[in-house]
Amino acid sequence: MTRHLRVRLEMLLRVRDFGKAHPELFPESLAGFKALTAVISAIEKIESLTTERLTAVRQTRRDQAARRAVILDRMRSIARTSRRVIGPAGAPLRLRMPRKQSDLSVVAEARTHLADAEAYHDQFVSLGLPDGCVTDLRQALDAFEGALADRRLGRGGVMRVESGIHDALTKGADAAQTLDLVVRNRIVDDPGLLAEWERHLRIVEGIRRTKRATTAEATAAPGVTAPASAPEAKPTGEGSTLLKVV
After folding, report:
1. What is the DSSP string of 146-192?
2. Looking at CB atoms within 10 Å, which of 67, 110, 112, 236 has the fewest?
3. Which pLDDT tens digit goes with each residue over 7-40?
4. pTM above 0.85?
């Protein structure tokens, strides 16, 4: 989850905790009870989707890593043995492991190993490799390519989950706006509690301003200077936005 989404989830969590701490403000007869229920439902949906996303990503990564290790092991055995396999020109094959460790490089080199292992199968077997060495490598290659395909499909699933999280956050924020109206009307005579509520609604995000960006802004309009009352820009800091009813 991005920071942009996480800080909004944190706001919903604070709103939920406020509602649990002050149930007297949200009787079932008022719209605030329904809105608070919607906030809680949105949080549960987000937590469920986040867990689903993490589980799927970790599983596909574990599967890919395991199958990658198998295919590299099969390739190593064939490459090592190929030093004594004699080709048509009378020179040893000397197959090499992929110089680049990218998945596509591993797949491409594995196909080369597979072709040579099939062409010189009898020599590889006479040098101690099992009779099924070609079959083993082919199966390892198929499994690895399958893992890569699963991961590509998994990325589509991640996008679906991210979309679901964003939708739940939007619904939760909309419910929080309704709660804001209800709470303000209920605690209008309690400035301390009102201040606490407003603090819970605040969305805080980090602001980063590089020196280059600040300089660019300063030189964009050389004839314009900032008013004396304008706050001084800081390289880093925290920006906060109060949830507003629209």
Report:
1. HHHHHHHHHHHHHHHHHHHHHHHHHHHHHHHHHHHHHHHHHSTT-HH
2. 236
3. 888 999 999 999 999 999 999 888 999 999 999 9
4. no
